[in-house]
Design a protein that fits this description.
Helix content is about 25%, strand content about 20%. With about 325 residues, the chain is an alpha+beta fold. The chain has a single domain, classed as B-lactam Antibiotic, Isopenicillin N Synthase, Chain (Jelly Rolls, Sandwich). Bound molecules: 2-oxoglutaric acid. Belongs to the iron/ascorbate-dependent oxidoreductase family.
């Protein structure tokens, strides 16, 4: 393999050796069932109490859910997917101008997860962008395709509003003040991973992304509407989350697990790949400000349940997360009391 990225435009006929997982770690695709009862929450529902109840159930039993009628326009979504596809179709020399394997960069094209640290690579290329404040980060984003900056910035603004709405509702569902989560997380950062999983000659032997939880507060994932690949761990079994038309998949991240004192779960999830079909997904991550002090909400520890996690700043957590391999034990374990 000569190129550092997979999306060279030249298809692979065999899987390079450094992508092959040991037998015991492979995805066993034929054994994976569809998740039949993925919670789907209609945010346009007039009955607020029902939304809150559905959220409490989804966040505690699943750690993820899908939202429909979420207020992000169909146009913003369609344009985002289109420009993301166009980006990954650019000539490899053009894309490589943006390549970096340094996770501290605020804009970079990269591949796998943490190429410098990991032993086995993942079948994924990704464009990673910091997105908030837009005025600060947008100037460094790709200017090819020419509509990239406008399209992605519009999408980011709409998704951020959705994220804030969800944080308020999730706070309420925990019995906290509506603005508790936003106040605790401070001026939240927003990052985006535009994931491109090229067609893979041997999907049984590798992952697009291996099992991981998200280090941030909340993830809003736009899945390719035609190609499946997202799987979550539910009751000890991996199940596939099929794309639902017009929906976002929302994951609880590690910070909301900590803040909820373990009541809500940061869900283990992974991405598998397909023969003959590329897949895209666009993950928007809402992240606490670096100096936000994360600890179990007082109201959730008052009634006799001890705080499971010690207090930490998000900067401390994030550094720890990137110093490890993606598929190690849950990073929150390190912060347990
Ligand atoms: O591609 C997917 O469905 C999952 C992406 C994901 O987990 C991530 O970007 O962290």
């Amino acid at each position: 393999m000569d190129s550092k990225v997979l999306s060279t435009g030249i298809p692979f006929t065999t899987l390079p050796e450094n992508y092959i997982r040991p037998e015991s770690e492979r995805p066993r695709l034929s054994e994976i069932a569809d998740c039949e009862n993925v919670p789907i929450i209609d945010l346009s529902c007039d009955d607020r109490a029902q939304i809150i109840e559905q959220l409490a159930d989804a966040c505690s039993r699943y750690g993820f859910f899908q939202v429909i009628n979420h207020g992000v326009s169909a146009e913003a979504i369609e344009k985002m997917l289109h420009v993301a596809n166009e980006f990954f179709q650019l000539p490899v020399e053009e894309k490589m101008k943006l390549y970096s394997d340094d996770p501290s960069k605020t804009m970079r094209l990269s591949t796998s997860f943490n190429v410098k640290k990991e032993k086995v690579h993942n079948w994924r290329d990704y464009l990673r962008l910091h997105c908030h404040p837009l005025e600060q980060y947008m100037p460094e984003w790709p200017s090819n395709p020419p509509e990239f900056k406008d399209t992605v910035s519009n999408y980011c603004v709409e998704v951020r509003q959705l994220g804030h709405r969800l944080e308020e509702a999730i706070g309420e569902s925990l019995g906290l003040e509506k603005d508790y989560i936003r106040n605790t997380l401070g001026e939240q950062g927003q990052h985006m991973a535009v994931n491109y999983y090229p067609p893979c000659p041997e999907p049984e032997l590798t992952y697009g992304l291996p099992a991981h939880t998200d280090p941030n507060a909340l993830t809003i994932l736009l899945q390719d509407s035609h190609v499946a690949g997202l799987q979550v761990l539910k009751d000890g079994k991996w199940v596939a989350v099929k794309p639902h038309p017009g929906a976002f998949v929302v994951n609880i991240g590690d910070q909301l697990q900590a803040l909820s004192n373990g009541k809500y779960r940061s869900v283990w999830h992974r991405a598998t790949v397909n023969v003959g079909k590329a897949r895209m997904s666009i993950a928007s991550f809402l992240c606490p400000s670096d100096d936000a002090l994360i600890s179990p909400a007082r109201a959730l520890t008052d009634e006799g349940s001890a705080a499971i996690y010690r207090s930490f700043t998000y900067a401390e957590y994030y550094k720890k997360f990137w110093s490890r391999n993606l598929d190690q034990e849950h990073c929150l374990e390190v912060f347990k009391n």
